[in-house]
């Protein structure tokens, strides 16, 4: 009991002190992308300079890569994460998709990752029966049939090992369950106030950059009689994105950024610059899942959660959606009330990771009114784009946003 009170006191101070700031997340981001005709993979995980945690994440990524490479035929692998941390603590949630099976892993530690915390450290074990009942009730609210299965009943029994997968966000505490028969992830989400009788953890209010209600969007004159193309960048923002924004600003041109909802809170300044400097933001879903393999409810959540994440930072809702891997069908088109944007010229920058090859592929194949696909998550791609901008302008192309280009198609 003494250890519980001591650790709880420390965690309470740490959570209370966690605020989003101009640069809210200090971690580096590792992305591994592969897209074949049948096999698709997107692995995203943080590098935190916390050796023990970094080693676990790297090993998990390598395991997924090896398993993916060994599979013949249709499959999708995905790894995404949510992170809340400051100098004193790390709360991390990692979602994993291996084909049809979803998994979740969570980590809670001190700031350098050297000391891990468990359910027993964060919650009062003496109250576990009452907490288990609340979790049971919350899970049933989202799935009325859940309580009828044996695996469900086993998963919510009042045992500490059943509740080790939890994540501490600024506003909520989420318990995750991935051991039900449907092989999907189930969540029980609570506010800190709702769990005040079970823990001393407290929430903190997010603080974003100041942002004018009236956005200044530079007006660029577009000549409809001259050639134009739209550069588009997927999977960001990233630490390289602002280098690209600098080049677009220098040459007085625009691009469209199809961003991941899971990345926008990590780079809010880049997102705001996109809008303030006359670029366009598009929606590339929350976690880069292949939409054609999701239920209608999951498709809507992937897109709408991203809309909310973007709006919270730049006060606008994107009008364009680019489905991950360009994968869409009649169901996706029917339920998403947005313009679904693919591309005309695929630079395959993710495959070559070669700046000069990306430039050559683009210049050898570009045509008037093309939408060009690139990614701002690779330094080779960003450098290629920086060099391509003046080269395309020298060839007479106006570099415009997708929405601007569609007006003249």
Automatic annotation (TrEMBL):
Gene3D superfamilies to which the protein is assigned, alphabetical: Glycoside hydrolase/deacetylase, Heat-shock cognate protein, ATPase
Chain ranges of the NodB homology domain: 227-400
Keywords, alphabetical: Hydrolase, Metal-binding, Signal
Superkingdom of origin organism: Bacteria
MF GO annotations: hydrolase activity, acting on carbon-nitrogen (but not peptide) bonds; metal ion binding
InterPro entries (alphabetical): Glyco_hydro/deAcase_b/a-brl (IPR011330), NODB_dom (IPR002509), PdaC/RsiV-like_sf (IPR037126), Polysacc_deacetylase_ArnD (IPR050248)
Signal peptide segment: 1-20
GO biological process: carbohydrate metabolic process
Keyword Ligase in record: no
CDD domains (alphabetical): CE4_CtAXE_like
GO cellular component: membrane
Stretches of the chain forming a coiled coil according to its record: none
Pfam family, one: Polysacc_deac_1
PANTHER family membership: CHITIN DEACETYLASE 1-RELATED, GLYCOSYL TRANSFERASE-RELATED
Protein known as: Polysaccharide deacetylase family protein
């Amino acid at each position: 009991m003494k250890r519980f009170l001591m650790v709880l006191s420390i965690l309470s101070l740490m959570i209370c002190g966690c605020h989003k700031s101009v640069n809210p997340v200090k971690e580096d981001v590792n992305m591994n992308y592969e897209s074949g005709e049948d096999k698709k993979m997107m692995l995203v995980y943080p590098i935190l300079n916390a050796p023990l945690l970094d080693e676990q994440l790297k090993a998990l990524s390598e395991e997924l890569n090896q398993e993916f490479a060994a599979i013949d035929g249709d499959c999708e692998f995905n790894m995404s994460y949510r992170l809340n941390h400051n100098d004193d603590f790390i709360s991390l949630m990692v979602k994993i998709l291996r084909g049809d099976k979803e998994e979740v892993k969570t980590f809670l530690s001190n700031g350098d990752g050297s000391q891990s915390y468990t359910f027993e450290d964060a919650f009062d074990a003496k109250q576990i029966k009452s907490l288990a009942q609340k979790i049971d009730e919350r899970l049933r609210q989202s799935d009325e049939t859940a309580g009828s299965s044996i695996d469900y009943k086993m998963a919510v029994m009042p045992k500490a090992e059943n509740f080790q997968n939890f994540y501490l966000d600024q506003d909520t505490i989420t318990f995750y369950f991935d051991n039900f028969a449907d092989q999907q992830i189930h969540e029980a989400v609570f506010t800190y106030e709702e769990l005040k009788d079970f823990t001393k953890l407290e929430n903190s209010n997010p603080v974003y950059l100041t942002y004018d209600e009236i956005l200044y969007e530079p007006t660029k004159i577009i000549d409809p009689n001259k050639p134009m193309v739209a550069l588009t960048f997927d999977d960001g923002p990233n630490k390289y994105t602002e280098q690209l924004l600098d080049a677009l600003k220098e040459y007085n041109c625009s691009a469209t950024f199809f961003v991941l909802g899971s990345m926008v809170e990590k780079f809010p300044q880049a997102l705001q610059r996109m809008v303030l400097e006359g670029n366009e933001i598009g929606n590339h879903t929350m976690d880069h899942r292949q939409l054609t393999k999701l239920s209608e409810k999951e498709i809507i959540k992937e897109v709408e959660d991203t809309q909310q994440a973007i709006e919270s930072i730049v006060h606008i809702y994107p009008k364009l959606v680019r489905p991950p891997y360009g994968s869409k069908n009649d169901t996706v088109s029917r339920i998403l009330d947005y313009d679904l944007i693919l591309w005309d010229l695929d630079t395959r920058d993710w495959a070559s990771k070669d700046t000069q090859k990306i430039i050559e592929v683009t210049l050898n194949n570009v045509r008037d009114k093309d939408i060009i696909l690139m990614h701002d998550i690779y330094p080779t791609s960003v450098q290629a784009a920086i060099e391509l901008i003046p080269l395309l302008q020298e060839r007479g192309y106006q570099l415009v946003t997708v929405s601007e280009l569609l007006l003249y198609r």
